[in-house]
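Lab notebook, bench 4. The sequencing result for the construct came back, and we need a structural model before the next group meeting so we can plan mutations. Quick request posted to the team channel:

Model the 3D structure of this chain.
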Amino acid sequence: MASHRRPKQPGRARVTVLTATAAAAVALTSQAAHADPKASKAEVKEKVDKYYDEAEQATEKYNGAKEKQDKLDKQVTDLQDKVARGQEEINKLRNSLGSLATAQYRSGAVDPSLQLLLSSDPESYLDKASTLNQVSAKQADTLKQISEKQRALKQQRQEATGKLKDLAETRKVLGEQKEAVQEKLAAAKEQLNTLTAAERAEVLGEKEKADGGKGGEERAGRGGGSSRPDLGKDVPTSGRAAAALAAAQGKIGAPYVWGATGPGSFDCSGLTGWAYAQAGVTLPRISQDQANAGTRIYDQSQLKPGDLVLFYGDLHHIGLYAGNGQTLHAPKPGANVRYESMGNMPFQFGVRIG
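Done. Here's the predicted structure in token form:
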């Protein structure tokens, strides 16, 4: 008779081991399926360039908000000074009016016709009455001045209140733009930290050469060599343009720092503004406004050394034309002021400062 004994069940310990082993195998399989392979240098560069581009856009917005805040700060201070001075003038006028009223009260507020009948010296009284009329006229003029100053004061207070509201909103925008810049820079740094030091330098363009230029462009390229490119027949259109370019050349190697206007570090519009300031020309703070500071030149072949050159559709990057297809600019965080091929960025137009 065949045996129908039930097969022996594995021990609890064995079941536990098998279950754990299976779970580990599933986990490893899952991790292998979802693991992100180490991004290539090209992929990191693409992401870093994108983050830095977005950071520079936010930087120019930050610069605009900062400029607006500085102007509003001054306007609010001036208005508050005017309000304080206006209130002080009103107080003085009120005090003088009060002194006159007190003097009249002490002399007796008696009807003038009755004072004439009771006066023992009518002639003297008439002299006093003439003075009283003059005093009344002066009081009326003082009251008119007080009324006018009160209206002006009210208007100045309303204007100051409006400016303070604008200032508060601008400070909020400033904080938001600062956060946006820092967020993009942090994201770029995170990507760069996945590379070796040599790879980081290459991604930042500190070792690369221009890859789209011709002739002399390759000599200056993205490597940011400190030697001036061969200008050929290119010469500045004015002494101011030449002085601005020379000033910027003296800052080759200075680091890019967002929001900086020199003299030790710069962002893109900070460099161009500082360079032209050395030539005695005041430019607006941000690249979009500097784009309207002179005559626009759309034909790249017509550019002259010292002209401003603007890049990207929203004009968030700017540099100085250095001649022979090169721009001298503060490129991006992690990089220094250097020459670079115009072909490395989407050129929009140049601006010649008159």
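The CA atoms of residues 72 and 167 lie 6 Å apart.
Will bring this to the meeting.
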